[in-house]
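hi support,

uploading two proteins for the ticket. first:
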Amino acid sequence: MNETIRAREVRVVFPDGSTEVLPTPVGVRKAKDLGLDLVVVAPTAVPPVAKVIDYGEYTYQEKKRKNEAKKKQHRIEIKEVKFRPNTDEHDYDFKKNHAVRFLEEGNKVKATVFFRGREVTHANLGDKLLRQLIGDLKELGDPEGLPRMEGRTMHVIIGPKKKKVAAPKPKQPAAAEAVGEAQPAEAGGSSASA
């Protein structure tokens, strides 16, 4: 900004849109004459590009733009749903509905089955339960792997499916649709009278 610019010459963009390549001190003097500042906006260009603007307003707009970008971001969180190997049907449905809600919000779901005592010998029950959950949620999310056993727990992480953006179909004019609809009726009418 102003005197801190190190380049010998800069491409100066004035408020009216005109540009000139000037020695830096001359560009700073012209900016001061307009009551504004000379701010480098593209330091890697040859020569560097500098705008004649109000620096306070420029920093305010930059800060505002960064905040807007931050608001539009969505952080994906991992929500956990815990099961036991002998979870009843109603409890399973209740927890599955939580997983559905989490996936619809765009979060990942970590489904975990805890084994206590001798239950760990029946790991196949936990595997069956998690595979059933994966099957029930296949329309909303994809598993990031197969169910994995770690110690006395078995888990799988299910991520939300990417939403496909459908291309908008071009609309036909209303007059063309009316003509298109009238033709088949006429053709049908002429064959009936013949």
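and the second one:
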Amino acid sequence: MAQINSPVFYRVAILLLTVALVAGGCGGDKPAPSPTPASVTPTSAPAPTAPSVNVALSPLTTPGGVMPGLSPLPVPQTQTQSTAPVQPLKASGAAQGKILWHSDRGGDVQIWVMDDNGQNSRQLTQGEGVGTNDEPVWSPDGQQVVFASDRDNEQAFQIYLMNADGSNQRPLMPFHASHNWGPDWSPDGRQVVFQTNRGANANFEIYAVATDGANLRNLTDHPANDSRPRWSPDGKQIIFVSNRTGRRALFVMNADGSDVRQLTDSAGEDDLPRWSPDGREILFQSTRGGGGFFGIYVMKADGSNVRPIGNFSGNVNAPTWAREGRVIIFASTRDDPMWDLYMMDRDGSNLRRLTDNFKTDRFPAWHP
């Protein structure tokens, strides 16, 4: 074999070696990764955040997790099925009113409305930037809805208003870095009552405000957690929930916050009271039946003659009167581990299922 000693050969070899070294150093056809940028503090002021809430003071959480009766957000439940499933209500009966409720069937928890025979459901709060919206309540004339929303800040629910068709959504008051929910209208439609932890101790108090956002005032002013207010039909009293005796019980006060009286005192937790349309009875949910689940109870307005209604294998949520007090609408985990809406006669008979999907439907509100 002849020796290769041409100067041209050596020049070509050196050139090829140089190209190979450069290509290897650049990683072939993939550019070298850019360094991870350091976090930059924005120049604009950050959005206000809700005050830190001590777990012992807040009705939102307990060491065991979220309390299903107090949190506006859905909580999956597990239970042993002990009753036959209830089939969804057929559209054979004519609707006699409409039901507002909140559901996560579209993703985030949003407000929906349907006829009270379970038909014609449609979503009212939707679109980019609307956040989570829950606990809707009809105005007395059925023209508006008050609800809670975290669209301004995920750490601070605010009270919002909208028209009954979902239009004209607006905050009731200027933003405040606190949690505000559980609203209800006064019977004349001029005021809204709600719970908030805007105080220095971050415990929940009952506040009232005019529907134009004016005249905000604290009605309870107590170191315990006061929540879930509901105005009486005659506008003279407000029933609410408080843990001021060590567990959640029902209390009533005059509409100006005076003359607070305890109505219930059981070994369980009493929650989410609703006045009957005539003001003579109070519907509520309670764990007094044992098993750790909420059941449905009714009593006279003075707290006497407490009795259960219905018999359910799972949790119930927010039982409310409908059709002039002849029926009760509520949410339950009876037939799946999430929540569906049901209707029954006021004596617990004639149970029928209004919604049927593996999503959360809770906090119903009825209007004729």
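thanks. also noticed: DSSP finds one helix and 26 strands in the chain.
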